[in-house]
Amino acid sequence: MSNETTSDCNYQYVICTNCQKVTQKKGTEMRGPQQLTSGPSAFISETEFVQDVEQDDKMLLLVKEFSLTGRLNNLTQVMGLHPQYLESFLHTQYQILHIEGPLPQHYRHYIAVMAAARHQCSYLVNMHINEFMRSGKDAEWLKGFEYIPQRLKNLNEINKILAHRPWLITKQHIQKLIKTGKNSWNQTELVHAVVLLANYHALAGFVLGCGINPEAEQCTINGIMPEFCMCDLANDNSVENPSFSSKIVKNVDYVSELEALLERMRRLQEDKDEEGASQEEMATRFEKEKKESFLVLSEDFEDEPVPMSDVLRYVEDPTFGYKDFARGGEDQLPTFRAQDYSWEDHGYSLVHTVYSDIGNLLDDKFRMVYNLTYNTMATHEDVDTTMLRRALFNYVQCMFGIRYDDYDYGEVNQLLEKNLKKYIKTVTCYPERTTKRMYDGFWHQFTHSEKVHVNVLLMEARMQAELLYALRAITHFIT
Hints:
The protein is mainly α. It has two domains: 232 residues, AhpD-like (Up-down Bundle), CATH 1.20.1290.10; 231 residues, no CATH class. Helix content is 54%, strand content 5%.
């Protein structure tokens, strides 16, 4: 069993990072944290971060100023491969978690726990359990959602819907939260809560998609570090697991794969310059891509039992999960057309009106990540990657039923190969099932930094999709 502790007078609250059980005992001396694994990620070589940190003083200054832990935690180091994005991310995190706002601090951290637990992301759950305990509030809450105030329990419904099937959220869900008597939420508080939920659902995907290791102090056994992390073994993420190398496909010309992708990008750009597809054809291609996305991973996950973890003590209805948009009994759901309710024209306006600071920061972060580029692809320089980045962003939102009328979804199949699509769907919809083998299985010629860039795009695309559905429901309730 691995434990985390925090002191309170003569007692320590001890949390097992595997089962999340909270116990109280007389304080005992604990040995200092020791290094658990080699580096901040089970997927990425430690040297990738050492070189980057040494060369980027700006990133270090940002971390010192904004890091919530006051040090370089593993999440920050991985994200620090893209310092420009890290700056925006940390500003936003600091605002939604620490700056004076609608919700009290302990609520913010508990909502983060609730959101991260939907995807069994123990890294984030443990991080915010620690923050919650530092607030000095009732440790009884950490026994599970049955022990929390009714007001927080009322968030369980939109937490699970936003995490797995955000298209199901309606103004009735909003009405139920705002009109529940003494346990009601006002509009500003609810917007803050929705931002936290969407943020931590998406961030769980980033953490699990990048194989971020637990902090050393999260995995001690009576203060002594084990030789490996059981969570890594269970999730097939162990750095030393020999099965990875045995399952790598041999004799594949990865250089040719890269050159073929560059050629497809060139041809698509030429076709676009010559003559664009009609609106009818664009709509048909969206529907085709949406239906084809149903098949990705379906053979792997359809009949597989849902894995259970004691982190789910913070979750109501743990068997509720992602279901492909418009599949089964939900096939009458209309497509969410982005021009009818977009972030730029509608979502941002609502958030800015009720919580202006976070509205501006979210808008800056979405714009920055959408345009973030180094004009490189693996060993090639001076490459316009706009087409590829947009395919990644729009494919995520397509899986959530969101369509952009000005985008040709035929580009998705041209630019995103099968293994990459599987990885995207896993990280976006089932992040708790992501493995190192999946991470290694796409874009073999690309750098780790480029793969982390993919994860940043997936995270922000998912967060924006959840916000669009939630904010549209709030708008419908208001009007």
